[in-house]
Amino acid sequence: MDFIDWCHHVLGTLEEQRFHSHLSDYALQEMLFREVAKQPQFQESRIRHSMFDALWAMRDAGLAEEGNHRKWKITPLGRKALSDPIEFWSDICAVQLDAEEEN
Length: 103
What we know:
It is built from 6 helices and 2 strands. The chain has 103 residues and is mostly helical.
């Protein structure tokens, strides 16, 4: 699974849980990783950090919001991107970068 697919998966989980105002990163990791999240080294694992990489990228793109006590929710833009990901990602990929941004 590439990063965009992973973000879409995490975003889908946020959408499924949108009416649960208590969706902490801990609850989200339990949903995403199930039994793996119960393993002793999970808290320091790269797989757990991948969840935060996706959440922070989606927050920066306006697709998700981080509230008090690291509670997460999908935004209206996130719902739109979830319903039509090709349009959303095509728009991002179409942005022209200047020489400084490319480096």
